[in-house]
Amino acid sequence: MISLLTVLIPLTWAFLIPLIHIFRKTWLKRAILLFGIAVFFVTISAAISGWKQSALSFLGGWPAELGIVLIVDKLSAAFLFLSAIGGGAAFLASYGRLKEGPWRYYVIFFLLQASMNGVLITGDIFNLYVFYEVFSLAAYLLVAFTISWQAIEAGLKYLVLGTIGAFFILLGIAYIFMATGSLNMAVLSLVLPHIPNEALTVIAASLLIGLFIKIGAFPVHFWLPDAHSSAQTAVSALLSGVVVKVSIYTLLRLSLLLFLETKPAVFTVITVVGTLSVLGGHLMALRQEDIKRLLAYSTVAQIGYVLIGVGTGMAAGISAAFFHAINHMFMKVGLFIAAGHIAEDMKTRNIYDLRGLYHHRRWFVIVFSLLTAAIVGIHPLGGFMSKWYLMLAATKAGNVIPALALAFGTVISAFYYMRVLSFFYSSGDPPPRQTYPYWNLAIAGACALCCVFLGIVPLVPSLWKLVSDIGLNAVDTAEYISTMLSK
Amino acid sequence: MSKSCFLRIVTFLLCLALGWQFWKGILALEPTQIIIGPAAHYIESAAEETGATNIVAAILFDYRALDTLGEASVIYTSVCGIAMLFAKSKFKISSTGLSFIVKRGVSFIIPFLLLYAAGIVLMGHISPGGGFQGGAVFATATILFCIVYGSGFEAVMIKPKTKELIESSGALMFVLIGFVGLWTGAGFLANIAAGYPKGEVGRFLSGGSIPLLNIAVGMKVSAGLSTIFYSMIKLLEFEVTKHPGVKNK
Amino acid sequence: MSALFYSFVCFFLILTALVASEIKDILSAVISLSVFSVLLAIAFVALQAPDVALTQAVISSGLITSLFLVAYSQTQKEGRRENDEE
Where does the sequence pass through the membrane (chain C) (predicted)? Predict the structure, then answer.
């Protein structure tokens, strides 16, 4: 039941906020803070309870073939944990900056969280699509929130390309329904092997194209740099850190449940697209002078890493992909919050104008350097560990070229991140401004510390077992099916 | 000019190729004479299990009610977003109303239009219709107000804050009706199993929670769509003094 | 219904969709989109789906067309609009 509350509680808060605004405007400040904290705790407790034992919720009391079932297994629990932390950090960052002024922003924020949790726990493919659309729509609106012309253009581009992606996903789902007549993912996993092969090709192609557009993988990533760089600080952190991971979860779940035995070519396609994203993202980031756009292209490349892990189709690869996803969430949230705060403070996003930042924003630059070291992959930090395990998994699955691309990409990323840091540490004399909010620094610092902690995780066997359990559970589709259809 | 022509031809050929692939995918499925999957169960037993004769309403509001909550959230999100994007802008020349004959004529039609909308919403479980359709017709009525009488009139008759109130209340009503099911232990958004009275199949008072959910969705959709339209034609200042009953803001 | 009816409706669906996406005048494109929606609603009725047809007719050819026309009218007037964005 608590898994249902992860969707319902943020949804109820989103519906309550306008009523509070109409009747008791003075309660709004405390109410919003309380709502955000409550959502965080509910999601974490749902993740923990789903980890210990797969939790099922039959909505309306109907069995799995007739109605909608919500299921939390270890993969969903892990991603719920990720979404709780990322959402919580973004909520704190935006609350610190906006206070309770724009109440519609918080309505859309809570709807985003509710629908992200809904995507992560649902077991029905059309329900997945509905919740996916809700959070995509909320993401489009949050990008355009600042109503500057840049933000609106970025939001419009995101809207148009995202709707095209959603169209392809819906086409795939319509084909699935036409071919099999049922919409429950466990039932589909049993029924899909009996469909003629051309229909399966069309289904796989539509779903993959749609999901790649939504994830932002290389050939169709054009909305991502604009959207992630033109948004506000907290929204960029949320988009790069959490929204992309939820899309990757969708790809993971659908390809494992539906295409693992029937069409293994899907995983080859995912690996190829991942490799292209790594190379494309890093090469495009080399040419950027705008710091937030550089971070956004870096996101494209890191998505490529995770896709290489997903494309192996084996438990080790999926565990490594999840580990890199959670590392990337901490690193990118920290980087975007630090960079966004610096950009807003110094009123410029161009790294040439940010020379000499070290001398008057000392702690920000130190945290930024730590996070950069993590994302490039310096040894004891989290980024190195996750890339190491990704390369191991890719080589074990026989994909040698992606592993080489991964290493090559790391070298390129070192180059452009070091260039940014060299600008920060050089000497220059822009006028120092004395607004020094500790709030954003605290959040970015906490993310950096988590990266350090995550670097130690693979060395502790009990903690690493948690991560590798995720991969084993993800590939074990028979257990998923039997849990779902047991009633 | 030839580069854009070339691009158009390439796009056209790509669309044709895409369409051919999809057509090939459809042809590969052999058409079945019997209905398979849960659809067969819905057709046979929707009326006894849920009490509603309209199977589509039974599926939308009973078997797969969480999807309907999600769809209503989509509308809610877009209304909230549009109101947020247009919050600071007011437009100078909006609608100032049409001529006298049109106003008198529409004033005869409006009650029937509202009754028609209410009928679609309330009878969603026995005839085609339901909350979404009825709510859209309600919103069309407010759009007619804007066009025929001027947007100032509409803003006074139904204030924007009232619309926000109706929308949020409709949404909360939906969730609360679902919570009743959770409380009695039958699962969220359960219908007959949560204790809602089933009634006699085919009568007006039947279907358990389906009419209530229809009303909630109708409230939400009508207020939401009306808010979208109103946000786009807000009036900066009043320039007309011709219609009665319009007060200055 | 007969195949002739379906092919008639499909032909005009494709025609109005092409007109809506290719024509230069925005007003004509919006009206063409509205005709497309009405034809789609007729097709839904012929396929025996009255709920879907009702939704399509009211929302798409009623509300969506009016919203497009409002957006079109608001962006065509230069200099007579005072608002703080852009």
Answer: 6-23, 30-47, 53-72
